[in-house]
Design a protein that fits this description.
This protein is of the alpha+beta class. It has 6 helices and 7 strands, in the order ββαβαββαββααα. It is globular.
Length: about 230
């Protein structure tokens, strides 16, 4: 059993589901993605994604016309396995097609591009053994880049808030919950972290705060202060 958050940008709400490993992911049509496939190598009892990512998957799957193998999807930031600004930690990124030929991967990539639904589809020369696409959202906090996470602050709701809460908790700065809603406890935890690393304690997670937090937490493993 796993708890799954799905962020709906249309209503600005985080929807909650309790699923078994073989249950279809919410909003993934016709059993084309099951929880265990979205989970990949993550051992987490709590996972998250967005309605938009699932809708982008549906469009790609329909255009491609047959099953797509998912090698990697969700990871919690302290589990690591990806870079410090990876969209896998936000639950909106997919690495697929590892078990098919290069010509078939090209067809998958072309299908993803043709949907115009993904925020980013990686150039094929960067991922020659798989296809990467993600449904990143929000303007990156750091300037002059299309990567990274957007600024989040008091009253924000998103899977990026879940990433922030998860990171702070793993580092020992308790947000007291893991719910994707940036409230007073998350703000206080962020201010404590900012003070500890010499940043202005304004309670806003922008470029510098994201850089400090992610560089400190990626791949450190589950700590005693992690919240599920």
């Amino acid at each position: 059993m796993a708890k799954v958050f799905v962020y709906d940008a249309y209503s600005n709400k985080l929807l909650r589901y309790t699923l078994n490993e073989n249950d279809p992911m919410p909003y993934a049509y016709d059993n084309t993605m099951r929880l265990r496939e979205f989970r990949g190598s993550s051992n987490s009892p709590t996972l998250w994604t967005t309605v938009a990512a699932m809708e982008s998957w549906n469009l790609t799957r329909r255009r491609y016309g047959k099953g797509i193998y998912i090698g990697y999807a969700f990871k919690r930031i302290w589990e690591g396995g990806h870079g410090t600004a990876s969209q896998h930690y936000a639950g909106v990124s997919f690495d697929v097609g590892q078990n098919v030929s290069s010509s078939e991967r090209l067809k998958i990539r072309n299908a993803a591009v043709a949907t115009k639904a993904w925020g980013y589809v990686e150039p094929i020369d960067m991922t020659p053994r798989w296809v990467h696409f993600d449904r990143r959202y929000g303007k990156p906090a750091c300037p002059n880049t299309t990567a990274g996470y957007p600024t989040v602050r008091r009253s924000s709701r998103s899977t990026y808030v879940l990433v922030l809460q998860d990171a702070l908790n793993a580092l020992g700065y308790s947000t007291r919950t893991l719910d994707g809603i940036f409230g007073a406890n998350t703000e206080n935890a962020l201010k404590a972290f900012q003070r500890a690393v010499g940043l202005t304690a304004d309670g806003i997670c922008g470029c510098n705060s994201w850089r400090k937090i992610t560089s400190a937490v990626v791949g450190i493993g589950r700590t005693p202060t992690v919240i599920d």
